[in-house]
Specification:
Elements (H helix, E strand, L loop, with lengths): L1 E3 L2 E6 L4 E9 L6 E9 L5 E6 L7 E6 L4 E6 L5 E6 L4 E8 L5 E7 L3 E6 L4 E7 L11 E3 L2 E6 L4 E6 L4 E7 L3 E9 L5 E7 L3 E6 L4
Antiparallel strand pairs: 1-2, 2-3, 3-4, 5-6, 6-7, 7-8, 9-10, 10-11, 11-12, 13-14, 14-15, 15-16, 17-18, 18-19
Length: 209
Amino acid sequence: LKIERSLLAVANSGENSLSLFSLEQNPQSLLYRLDLLTTVSNIPQPDAVAACDPALTAQVLVTSFLDHSLTVIEAPSGAVLGTVQLNSSPLAVECDLETFTERRAVVSLANDTLVVVDLNSLTVLATVPNVPGNRHGHGIAIWNRTAWIPNPERNLITLVDLRTFQRIGDISLQQPLSVVCCHYYDRHTPYMLVTSYTRGLVEFDVSTL
């Protein structure tokens, strides 16, 4: 996971750790150089990884499917800020910035719920039921305080309002695997990019939803 232009995080599932690397590009060859900064140990089989806004003090969010946990790590120091135990195995995670000082982790769980965690207090703020997720990369995307969660088995993308913690509705799509926000073809129109197993790349103009 690229946290910012000069920082990279790698989950080492087989070694129960997460590594942080500095990332530097040579302006002439355009090749990148990776230097290991630190390795954070004792994370049981780390799986999904997300990063919070590096304009603030960067934080890395790491989930463990094995022990139902979310670990919050400061970058680039690698200091563990805390761990939150969840009531089911996490499938995907994304960072939501409510304000410039308030950060939340949005976590999709295997029991078809979406959990919102306050990263300042490391407590669960809300649990939203009937939100099926999946373990493919980029399993959650957020635009305008709305979370998009794809599920290929049920052929749908679920939308959740992160202000009210309520399901907004579903978008029908054949086998959506991953979702990324946002691509701009011009400076004004954002598009959500969804990868479908059967249809390839599908674009949604989020300004019209």
